[in-house]
Amino acid sequence: MDILGSAVPAFATIIHPYTLLIIFIGIMLGIVLGALPGFGSSQSLALLFPLTFAMQPEHAILFFVAIYSAAEYGGSIPAILIRTPGTPAQSVTILDGYAMTQKGLAGKALKISLISGVLGGIISTVIFIVGSSSLAQIALQFGPGEMFALGLFGLSIIGTFFGRSPAKGFLATGIGLLLATVGSSEFGGLRFVFNQGYLMDGIPLIVVIIGVLAAPEAFRLLIDHRKTIEKPVDQQKQRELAVQNRLTWLDIRRLIPTWARCSLIGTVVGIIPGAGASVGALVAYNEEKRWSKRGDQFGTGVEEGLAAPEVSNNSVVAGTLVPTLTLGIPGSGAAAILLGMLVSKGVEPGPLLFADQPVFVMTVFVGLITGNLIMLAIGLFGARWFAYVALVPRRILGPVVMILIIIGTYAYQNYGAHVAMALIIGAVAYYFERLNIPPVPIVLAFVMGPIIEHNLARGLIIHSGDLTTVLTRPITMIILAMALATAVFGIARGRKDGSVKPD
């Protein structure tokens, strides 16, 4: 593809007022919808699909990628402020983002999240422009066996690094996998449904996210702070916090290595079909914890711990477009909707798209960068207003969060049983937290469980039930070795700290 020759007409399309308006509207809708609990990028694109019917193909895809990017950022706003992740990927964001809010640094956390997301989107787009063809070849190497191994690797990371001890981390991981087994099996039959119709299709992801992460916080606010009277605002402390909430050049310089590493991780994970932003955020957080000088403080409100998953989330957006546009293989649920929209517009994704319609492809690239810059402007303007949520008295915030939880869960499929599930799971998770059983591994394991089972079943079907063939491909063996090494490291660390002993 002639990059320079295609850039000029693509840029001319982008700077047209109508195109900029479409991108701006997409960004605004994406932020608002992404901020709703459980209303991620896939749901946002599905809801707004009809709006693309009257659009030209280039305008429709720019509208969609703007929504896609903005929804990933929008989900971080409630995750940081009220510990209610808007999307599954933000389950990792709450670890340090919400901890910063508890320290009075909500404004700074929102700025770091915004800048990280924008840089992730821009850097991954540049990588996409330079090496889209090569990246597509990498994506082709990942079959069911590799995705199965990648899922196990994710579980080893979850159990080892999330929580105060690997023992409780793996216990929480097991609970998440148990919840994921409810409903129909990839190998046939039903599991743990107890003849209850509402369990036949399993527990929805949105119910688990809200029940495990958001509902316990609502219960905590309702139970622990129902009679709390907020102290008068200390003006001196407010001025000190205002200074601390500023994002300084020293902070930016310290975050540059994190942004560089995790944007690359997010892009690579994004090109793997089926991996998605949740896996990207998880791997990025784990690797940054390994590389950072303050890795032992992750989970207590460390800037790098917030920047890592956020820069990775938006990097996944551009990375997902690699298999979608070059191979016609959607890398995620959101990409599948985007692919369907392109086909409905008469655009046929594949290797020939780059040769036959280079201007169209370059318009997507330039639109991604433009959309991220518009999102930066909107986010910086709105960050100070978003941060005021953290100042709402906790005895008032508790009922509000509980109402949002009930409305958000019911609105998913207009089904009262889902609300009951979320509240029951939330009550159990509330007591789990009192026992220091971390909630995040439960959600992440619930996400990884179906990936593992689905790809194992596919691999066995493809290779006529021969498990050894599935597991002995070179990339699969390397990933499995990494998973084993990570688990052994976690057990060794637990023994060294004495954390594997019964409490």
What features would you describe in this structure?
- This protein is mainly α and 503 residues long.
- It has one domain (3-497).
- It contains 22 helices and 2 strands.
- Strands 1-2 form a two-stranded antiparallel ribbon.
- The N and C termini lie far apart (61 Å).
Which descriptors apply to this entry?
503 residues; mainly alpha; two-stranded antiparallel sheet; 2 strands; globular; disordered C terminus
Low-confidence stretches: 499-503
Side-by-side strand order of the widest sheet: 1-2
Helical amount among residues, as a percent range? over 70%
The computed structural class is mainly alpha
The average pLDDT value, as a whole number, equals 79
Distance between the termini: 61 Å
Task: State the domain count.
Answer: 1
Number of helices: 22
Binned strand content: under 5%
Major beta sheet, specifics? 2 strands, antiparallel
Provide the gyration radius in Å. Answer: 22 Å
Strands, count: 2
Molecular shape? globular
What string gives the helices and strands in order? HHHHHHHHHEEHHHHHHHHHHHHH
List the helices and strands and how they pair.
Blueprint: H1 3-14, H2 17-35, H3 41-48, H4 57-74, H5 76-82, H6 90-102, H7 106-140, H8 144-161, H9 166-180, E1 183-184, E2 190-191, H10 205-224, H11 235-244, H12 249-271, H13 276-291, H14 303-326, H15 333-344, H16 351-356, H17 358-386, H18 394-413, H19 416-434, H20 440-462, H21 467-471, H22 474-497
Antiparallel strand pairs: 1-2
Helix pairs in contact: 1-17, 2-4, 2-17, 3-4, 3-15, 4-14, 4-15, 4-17, 5-6, 5-7, 6-7, 6-13, 6-14, 7-12, 7-14, 7-17, 8-9, 8-13, 8-20, 8-22, 9-20, 10-18, 10-19, 10-20, 12-13, 12-14, 13-14, 14-15, 18-19
